[in-house]
Prior knowledge:
Blueprint: E1 11-17, E2 20-25, H1 47-62
Antiparallel strand pairs: 1-2
Amino acid sequence: MPQECPPHSAVTIQQLDTNTWIVKRQTADRSIKLVPFKIIEQLPDDPEWDKTELALAVHAAKNLPEPE
């Protein structure tokens, strides 16, 4: 393997035939951004938001296709 692919590098290997292999080094995708959020175990009760949430759910349910 070339020096750009040191031992234990993440690679994918695809076999084309009994004597031909394609080895591709996996590199980190730099186009992904992570945004941390605090984990919320329980949302506070909000009757006004419950009405809005129900209206959104009813609207979304109307646009679902019929099951086959």
